[in-house]
Amino acid sequence: MSYVPLVYGTLFFIFALSLHVLLWRLLRPVKDVLSLFILFAIVPLFSIALLYLPHSPFFNLRPYGIIELTGALLCYCALYCAYIMTYPALQARCPSLRMVLLIKRAGGAGIKLEEVRAGFDTADLVTNRLDDLISSGLVIKDKGVAGGASAIAYRVTPRGSLLLRPFMLFRRFLGLAPGEG
Amino acid sequence: MTFTATYAPALHLVILACAPVVIALHHSALARLNRLLSKPYSNQSVCLLSILVSSVAETVLLLLFGLLGGPSFFPALLYSATLYLALGYTYFHLFNMSETARRIRLLYEIERSGGVSGLTVNSNAASDIPAADKSVTTRLARLEALGQINRLKSGAYVTSGVTLLFGARTARLWGLLIGIDILTGR
Fold first, then answer.
1. What CATH number has the domain spanning A95-174?
2. Rounded to an integer, what distance in angstroms lies between the CA atom of residue B124 and that of residue B130?
3. Which among B3, B34, B174, B182 is least surrounded, fewest beta carbons within 10 Å?
4. Element at B72 (helix H, strand E)
5. What's chain B's average pLDDT?
């Protein structure tokens, strides 16, 4: 193996990240995770076209073997998957990360439980995420179905079930109860 | 020319691409063993241990097929390490999503409540879904179990580990670059 797959895989990834930063700074998409996936698919196709089209200025820089190109794409996929898994923590402002930052800011005296709680209300931890699920079409709400006019009933849509099932299967495979964490 | 020599580069990629499966198999065994312990480790620690154990298994496989030797030792090692770390990191976060992600948890709670009427949420309080207070204490307990924070005698929390702090600071910096401040939400 040469350095070619690693170098090209990393370059594809840097190219994708640069486009991601540029797009998000200019106009952050509403469906940002979906946009990240689309970007993930477009960048290697565009890069391969740039490298392999005969009249391209980058034609002479293309990897020669199919294994080298596959290795580069695999490297790109692994790096991009790692990034995609990190992104929701940013987008949903991961509470655990914020707690660590808040506690660090408090310094040596520390921070009391009540002060930590004050920084995280129900809207922050629950209802905003519920709104995300509704806007993504994973959950629907039926007003006034249960408990009178002030109550709202939520239901998981077939799409939501489809997303949830692999996670439940995964936890069962690991011998962990679903929803235990 | 031997089979291994002809197909060595492809075999190298296949072994590395299978890393998540290898990690999952180790994770499944170690998670079950962990439950037998009188004082089990946190689920996250078991996941990290599985990634570490699998790295040894992957290295042994690469060495067995002679894929980490000869003149291409350094590029092969660098490529394998980069790919494995990225896949291991992805696996850890995927597991963490099943463990801590609020959206997955909410989906699960709503699905579990089932039926036509579904989960009932009062207009002024999220009564059936995991309460915000519980969510805060669960996370603090998890951070404590991971050695990232400590609880002083006064009851106040202080940071003790650097791993998550480094991650949080990096995430904040990157967030600022793409226009999301995880601390203020602006």
1. 1.10.10
2. 14
3. B3
4. none
5. 85
CB-nearest to B98 from A74, A108, A167 is A167
Q: Which of A145-149, B30-34, B101-105 is predicted with the least confidence, judged by mean pLDDT?
A: A145-149
CATH 1.10.10 location in chain B? 103-173
For residues A8 and A6, give the distance between their C-alpha atoms in angstroms, rounded to a whole number.
6
Task: Indicate if the pLDDT at residue B132 is higher than 90.
Answer: no
Q: Chain A 33-62, CB below 8 Å of chain B: which residues?
A: none
Choose, out of B4, B7, B109, B121, the residue to mutate when testing the contact with A (most A CBs < 10 Å): B121
Residues 78-117 of A with CB under 8 A from B: 78-79, 81-82, 85-86, 88-104, 106, 108-113, 116-117
ipTM of this model?
Answer: 0.82
* Cβ–Cβ under 8 Å, residues B129 and B109: yes
- CB contact set of B65 (below 8 Å; sequence gap of 6+): B4, B8, B11, B12, B15
According to CATH, what is the number of the domain B103-173?
A: 1.10.10
pLDDT of residue A52: 86
Question: Looking at the predicted structure, is the pLDDT value of residue B90 above 50?
Answer: yes
Confidence of residue A16 (pLDDT cuts 50, 70, 90): very high
Q: Which residues of B touch A39 (CB under 8 A)?
A: none
